[in-house]
Give the backbone structure.
Amino acid sequence: MSSAAGRKHAGFGNGKGNTMKKQTEKDYLSQYDIGKYPRPSVTTDIVAFMIRSEENENYKMDSANKLSILLVKRAVHPFKDCWALPGGFLKPDETVEDCAFREITEEAGVTPVSLMPVGVFSDPGRDPRGWVISQAFASIISEDAVRLVGGDDASDAQWFDISFERDADGKSILVLEYGETKLQAVLREESSRFGRTSFLIEESGGLAFDHAGIIATALTALREGARNYETLFDFLPERFTLTALQKVQETIMNIQILPANFRRKVSDYVVETDEYTQGAGHRPAKLYRRK
Amino acid sequence: MSSAAGRKHAGFGNGKGNTMKKQTEKDYLSQYDIGKYPRPSVTTDIVAFMIRSEENENYKMDSANKLSILLVKRAVHPFKDCWALPGGFLKPDETVEDCAFREITEEAGVTPVSLMPVGVFSDPGRDPRGWVISQAFASIISEDAVRLVGGDDASDAQWFDISFERDADGKSILVLEYGETKLQAVLREESSRFGRTSFLIEESGGLAFDHAGIIATALTALREGARNYETLFDFLPERFTLTALQKVQETIMNIQILPANFRRKVSDYVVETDEYTQGAGHRPAKLYRRK
DNA sequence: CAAATAGTGTCTCTAAGACAATATCAC
DNA sequence: GTGATATTGTCTTAGAGACACTATTTG
């Protein structure tokens, strides 16, 4: 085993010949210059998920749901005019969570319901501006909040419907659509460690930086969290029907579930209230709360 | 929705009055000074896990296993003479994974079998030297490799047996022991998001920085990964008996499993070879490989 | 043969999936 | 009444846990 001398502390004044036997911590810190060694810029990138309910033709039928994420069109180089994840630089006196919260609130115009770290991206070549590492987050935003703020077709921030399919040999296709705009990236599953799957980008599909890989990682984590109902409730208001909750899980995981079985499994995670929906054109449903 | 102007790019020359209509990416990048805005120091901290088999009194009995982690005694301020996780500062042209690999190889003297990110720690006050954020990793190191390198009781790097119990109301006790040295930290489970549980430190137990919380987070992630056999194989040589594999899972998760049931469940993850153990004082066992 | 681990067979119980049947509302 | 969703019941099957039993080695 090597000695702890292997752990050099960047920035401590060298060659000053400090030979005091009893150097105090205060002395040490007052001499310490942390800026002496190179430091990277640190950013956060946020994959903000929302479930949009589509307009409906038949007054009786439930509306279909689509999973979507927020993208921002870059106004400056590099990747000028490409779509990118919202995010920004970490400031002193804030945690990476604070930073992500601040950035997504600014860009989406609404407060996220939850914010979950999904990984650090630190490939040396990932940003042409220089040494920039990024902490990625998955965030869940409720449709109600977004609807209040409204949108603008000319805005440079838009919600893209997302679809992500993994085929047999580990290749995945990520498709993002907003109106006429369609971005299609190709990724390869690289490794899955400790519940986090990472991806190699084969085609970026016009997304800026390594954002296609970040999106794939975040969606994979979201799906994993949806399996045990962990990430479902944040998409809905406080009171919800079991069918609405089921549709959230089906939308995220891209599966179909039989209502009877879903109700049985989810019953451990919810509490019923004495309220009901009304005016839906069919039997009213009991509203539930998260347990 | 706010405009993308919210996403300022730190370091782009301001006030230069660049009014060109067609600024090229090359022009932009050549003017770009990434060092203009404050940047944190970035470190990695590694929770290196090893399973130690204890010496045995009875020639027939299997040896008991203990889960242990590597700690390093700090030679300098701050936290001088406290035990800390191995780790160090991120360098340009390396990923955080590269950095963790480099640091743990230096400090443990052996190559880790695996390296898995468990989270970023970025509390502004976490390091008295200044603005330092850290990416934590869990690493698995095989006992065979460590035994080859050997140890030294006077060394400042030592393997501590670890025990971690969560009681009913969310309080957890972390105990680390090496010879006469016993560190005992108290933590409170704070939140569990996306499969990552984070902890508040109530008593650091003499561990440096926020390392008690990092250790608790890493161990929780390791245990989660052990549930589906993901992190078990890295503790063992390429060929192993099913009993050895079972003991790894029992040691990590601190549980007891009936051999018959373990064998049935694990059979999907292993392939049998035609080799057997010998000279163990009892019936020889077939060796298996990971599937 | 004694003591220890290696390995198999099987019973029970629980949970998941499939599906049938009934309930209730707006129009 | 029609057409949609809401809700409950139950049959079947797969898997986990418990446990009894047999096999094989060294000293």
Q: What stands out?
A: Residues 58, 60-62, 241-243, 259-260, 263, 280-286 of chain B lie near DNA strand C (CB under 10 Å from a C1'). The domain at 41-226 of chain B is CATH 3.90.79.10 (Nucleoside Triphosphate Pyrophosphohydrolase).
